[in-house]
Amino acid sequence: MFSKVLIANRGEIAVRIIRACRELGVQTVAVYSEADQEALHTQLADEAICIGPAKATDSYLNVQAVLSAAIVTNAEAIHPGFGFLSENSQFASMCEECNITFIGPKAETIDAMGNKINARQLMQKAKVPVIPGSDGVIDSVEEALTIAEEIGYPVMLKAAAGGGGKGIRKVLSKEELPKHFTSAQQEAKAAFGNDDMYLEKIIYPARHIEVQILGDQYGHVIHLGERDCSLQRNNQKVLEESPSIAISEEKRQMLGETAVRAAQAVHYENAGTIEFLMDPAGDFYFMEMNTRIQVEHPVTEMVTGIDLVKAQLEIASGEPLGYTQEDVTMTGHAIECRINAENPAFNFAPSPGKIQNLLLPSGGMGLRVDSAMYSGYSIPPYYDSMIAKVIVHGENRFDALMKMQRALNEIVTEGIITNAEFQLDLITHDNVLTGDYDTSFLQETFLPNWEPESNH
């Protein structure tokens, strides 16, 4: 095991990684921007080093600054968390060149799966079903129109280097396609420095089901069951649960085996997630692979009892997987709600500022809160608005839903506005209670009829 790890992230995931390191007896180095001087992760780590100004491009995305901090503090490994540099293959390569272990898959794996067109082709070779669409990069609007005509509207235009809902456009007709093609290309160029586009048929209605996998350096790959992430707004997940109520035990097994095959096709090491879309007939299609730890990893931890961040550290340090597929059992039901500093009544506008008073649910069986917030802390306006994740585990889905209602009711925030009330209204909606929802439900059914009671 490593003696010292640098965490190249901020917020709750940095705190989460520090805690896992501490339990393994590993020293930690926090990096922070000038805006994060008072952040919790800087206080919990053994060492903290400033890596630049508030803007992420000058700090958390500054490869030279992060690597310099690791070298200066003699860190043997870097954990990138999620977002920022976590899926940057160049950064993973540079870590290797500096004899620093990148806690994640190899750079070539990140590269192979990061380009969505390449990933599609690799999955087809591995006999993993993919969504009908273009076989490679679309060079022009004319080509896009031809392919869309062949597979039938509606279609989704996607950036090859995409992620986080950027460079994606839903196209309902040939009249809409030219303008969407241009705007998606421009957005992709600005976000990823790459404007390559591809096209896929829209699976509608669909459920977004993803499978957590772990692979070690010796070719062992296992899956840890699925998560249902169908409750989304603007292609961003809002609530996740495991297991999915929408699939049978037989389908669950088949899906897990398919995910393992997908990971083996790229000799996958460390924690990763294979994302699928499921159509109304119950057929699954590969969507993408996330070559990092996910925001929603706690729901898998709750139902399997496996600490994924510790597993990441152990795998990266050269240890073989400590369990086989047969050892993995899923017990009960887990749900996660993302709590964001945003105002749902004003189109979810970010709500940074000073937290005058904060009370997060902290007790009761089967409850976990991952957060880096505290009373008196000022949320900077430069980063993601997520301030906490409330995760519950129950004997069954109904039990978990009741726990989540209780937990969300206990949240008190003064000084900032959050989406806690919105989440509470969402999980008490009939469709969510019965599990009868898909990826369009939140945006097309719930939000148009939702009326906020207050702004707190």
TrEMBL record:
Pathway note: Lipid metabolism; malonyl-CoA biosynthesis; malonyl-CoA from acetyl-CoA: step 1/1
Q: What class of enzyme is it?
A: ligase
**Span of domain ATP-grasp:** 120-317
All residue ranges annotated as the Biotin carboxylation domain in the record = 1-447
InterPro entries noted in UniProt = ACC_Biotin_Carboxylase, Acetyl_CoA_COase_biotin_COase, ATP-grasp, BC-like_N, Biotin_carboxylation_dom, Biotin_COase_C, CPAse_ATP-bd, PreATP-grasp_dom_sf
What SUPFAM superfamilies does the record point to?
A: Glutathione synthetase ATP-binding domain-like, PreATP-grasp domain, Rudiment single hybrid motif
- What are its GO biological-process terms? fatty acid biosynthetic process; malonyl-CoA biosynthetic process
Question: What quaternary structure, including any partners, is listed in this protein's UniProt entry?
Answer: Acetyl-CoA carboxylase is a heterohexamer of biotin carboxyl carrier protein, biotin carboxylase and the two subunits of carboxyl transferase in a 2:2 complex.
Q: Which PANTHER family match?
A: BIOTIN CARBOXYLASE, CHLOROPLASTIC, PYRUVATE CARBOXYLASE SUBUNIT A
Its job: This protein is a component of the acetyl coenzyme A carboxylase complex; first, biotin carboxylase catalyzes the carboxylation of the carrier protein and then the transcarboxylase transfers the carboxyl group to form malonyl-CoA.
Protein name in the entry: Biotin carboxylase
The scientific name of the source species is Enterococcus faecalis ATCC 6055
